[in-house]
Request: fold
Amino acid sequence: MNESQLIPVHEWRNSHSPAGADLMVIAERELRAFTRAVTELFGREQARLAAEDWVDELDLTDASPGPTGLN
Reply:
């Protein structure tokens, strides 16, 4: 069974492993998709503010979910 394990944000951001790089690519894609959706629904200014909030919340997060190895 695959379970999520919490990874401290500073480790996630500073990771030079391929898995860490993949997480950054995924996060960037999710932010772009989120921003695009907010732009379509509420306009560019709201999308900019929402993206800033998204990044601020990420900064406040102590840990992000990440993959785990098989136990």
Remarks:
- The chain has a mean pLDDT of 75.
- The CA atoms of residues 5 and 52 lie 26 Å apart.
- The beta strands are 5-8, 63-66.
- The longest strand covers residues 5-8.
